[in-house]
Amino acid sequence: MRRGSPTGTSEGDLIDGNLVEGDWEYRPVQLPGDVSRMTAAVRLAIQAEFGGWELSRVRLYPGGVRKVVLRRRRSSRMLPELST
């Protein structure tokens, strides 16, 4: 299955809910409006520390909903999955 990349520059493959594009793997995450900024930051920091993810993009929508795109370099070693 082909789908546009989070940056809109090229296309990638969708594998296990993650968009794989070249050397990068992307994971969309949506945080509800009732999640505070501090809680959102802590949740994303935990994913960065233990899942190997880094922040690619954050969009804040009316009502406080945050749509986040995380990315990590593709690797042959197994990394833990993102828990939402």
Task: Explain what the structure shows.
With 84 residues, this protein is an alpha+beta fold. Helices cover 18% and strands 42% of the residues. It has 1 helix and 6 strands; from the N terminus they run ββββαββ. A 6-stranded antiparallel beta sheet has the order 1-2-3-4-6-5, with helices on one face. β2 and β3 form a beta hairpin. The chain is globular and about 35 Å long. It starts with a strand and ends in an 11-residue tail after the last strand. The N terminus is likely disordered.
Net shape: globular
The major β-sheet equals: 6 strands, antiparallel
| Helix proportion range | 10-25%
What is the tally of helical segments? 1
Q: What proportion of the residues form beta strands (DSSP E)?
A: 35-45%
Strand order across the largest sheet: 1-2-3-4-6-5
State Rg: 13 Å
Task: Provide keyphrases for this structure.
disordered N terminus, 1 helix, six-stranded antiparallel sheet, alpha+beta, 84 residues, 42% strand
Question: How are the SSEs placed, and which strands pair?
Answer:
Elements: E1 2-4, E2 11-15, E3 18-21, E4 24-31, H1 37-51, E5 54-60, E6 66-73
Antiparallel strand pairs: 1-2, 2-3, 3-4, 4-6, 5-6
Summarize this structure briefly.
It is built from one helix and six strands. It is an alpha+beta fold and about 80 residues long.
